[in-house]
User: Fold this.
Amino acid sequence: MSWHTWRMEYLNITFRLLAISQVILFTLFIAFSDNPKRVKVVGIGLMFGIMSYVGMPLVDRYTPHYENLRFMWFFGATVPSMLLLFVFFIFEESCQVPKWMLALISVSMGASAWFHIIDLGLPGSPLWLQILKCIITLTAISVVWRGRDNDLVELRAKARNIFIFVFSIETLVIIFVEVVTHFEPPILIDTMTQFCILVFTLAMNYVFSRLNPDAKLMLQPIITAPIEPKEANDPVIAQLLERMREERLYADHDLRVGTLAQSLKIPEYKLRQKINQELGYRNFNQFVNHYRIEEAGIKLREDTRTPVLTIALDVGFRSISSFNSAFQARFGLSPTKYRTETLTDT
Assistant:
């Protein structure tokens, strides 16, 4: 082995071990945090998958009884699926994973279990499974991206950028390198990959230790009924709530927190903070939809001849599907059934 190759191998091992130590530290952050159980379980599973991916090549090279540990490759292969679940629970704030997403994850996990545990127990995967992992990773990126404009939690909004531009992109690059090099990347590329993983894990722990030492990924509960203007101590909040009701700002399909901040003549970041901290909302759509659903409920009870779709569009929803979902979440039944039961009661 040449001096250059030996040096790169040494750096490779060092970066891997340091990255594993940082992943273990973040795992402890999550394990002892005050997060919902689903977030902790999936988060720990994600971290264990990363440790498996980073550490298994070392086990392969330097462990005498490596054959008994081949199944560990499976956990490294689950990283894209665990990543998707992790970001969904954090950024979507929902316990109910869509069926299509569960199907996508189930196929990937099942195929990975077959190739890494039951069949071959090797680090590689067939091309179609690698493509599926890319699709899952891209889905995770879209979950994080689509809620950026509506997120009112400052720390979580910053975390979106970390997941989008570092973690998810890096996962895609790793999968691409695996496909191109047939799971045998040159020592230089492999060392650079491990260095990037180390930098990310260091940055992740630094951010949490400085900005969020309790590692709370899901914060205070959402207030489902905003306070009245007369009860608001903050003049900006009082003006906001009064204008929302008097001017029906929520009926604008294109209403955004930025345009609302301009009309109130305050910086956008301050309005985000006030809606989040004063009113308790973590998502701008949830704040606006409260008013939309409230007015829709009145119209469904009092204006029985107007079609449900017309009411949905009039109060600010873009589609009947989004209206039905929001209404169901608020009242526990569909708008049509709500109208029928209201008429029956009267």
